[in-house]
Amino acid sequence: MKVTMAHGSGGASTSELIENIFAKHFKNEYLDRMEDSAVVPGSERLAVTTDSFVVTPYFFPGGDIGRLSVCGTVNDLLMSGAKPKYITCGCILEEGMDLDDLDKIIESMAATAKEAGVTVVTGDTKVVEKRGDFGGIMINTSGVGFMPEGIALSPAGCKDGDALIVSGNLGDHHAAILSGRMNIKNNIQSDNAPLTEMVSGLIEQHIDVHAMRDVTRGGLGTVLHEFAGASDCEIHLYQDKLPVSREVRDFCKMLGLDPVYMGNEGKMICVVNGKDADKALSIIRASKYGEQAAIIGEVKKSDNNGVILHTAIGGERLIGPLYGEGLPRIC
């Protein structure tokens, strides 16, 4: 069966769509009430985020748009130090989308939400006429997380002597999506993943974390450029310490891409007190999805803020933000 305009009418077809797909996979005490808003237990300090996801193809090696939408929102909450708790699911469906595909995507969202420890408490669905310009489905997810006492992370918090840790190999998601779009055969899998375990471990073990950011569109270079500007520091990266898989490295050479600017959906950059660097690295490596984590650089106070990459042959290269489009619709 396919999505039809009747599924967006608000009538019987809409109710059937919600009951047979969304309510089936997201079933919980809050969503089951089917009210205009969900009333849920709260916290004194909340972190709130929202994001929209459009990716072509919506199934790709290692994931799909459903898993991606949950990971993206959960990871945004985690980067502020929050404990993710609730998310919403808003879907815009294109007339003609296969209902079996939709069922698989929502099932994937539900499984990823369970893995990340969040509950989908409310949502909305709209159907638009077939346009052929966004691949059949767009998803918006908003998230709410609870802030622990004493946690206040910010890019402006980077300090002289801090260490930079990246949680794993760079460029996997970017390469997986581009490979699928260009029909390039390889074994590269998207890294889309919730980073709940590693962030919780850092906070629970009282690591002196100053800043965190998930490395998505714009890549590591763009994120660190923002960190340097916000904290008025100089950030030094070491090319030979950047974790990149052999297949992604070869893929980059073939297409002229730079892993420093490639998007990821399951990696974070963590800035910690240099004295805590080794302990933090051990915690991340012991966590799910953190096995390839590495200390890749350091923060230094300087009269000039910016990001300097120390190349493998002993040179230095200034890293600025990404200009133009690195890859459309990777998330």
Work out the helicity level: 25-40%
Structural class computed from helices and strand pairing: alpha+beta
Under CATH, the topology of the largest domain can be stated as Phosphoribosyl-aminoimidazole Synthetase, Chain A, domain 2
Question: What is the succession of H and E elements?
Answer: HEEEHEHEEEHHEHEHEHEEE
Reported CATH architecture of the largest domain: Alpha-Beta Complex
Query: Hey, roughly how much beta strand do the residues contain?
Result: 15-25%
- What would CATH call the homologous superfamily of the largest domain? PurM-like C-terminal domain
Q: In total, how many domains does the architecture comprise?
A: 2
Mean of residue pLDDT values: 93
- Report the total helices: 8
If strands are numbered along the chain, what order do they take across the biggest sheet? 8-10-7-11-9-12-13
Per CATH, the class of the largest domain reads Alpha Beta
Describe the sheet with the most strands. 7 strands, mixed
Cα-atom radius of gyration: 21 Å
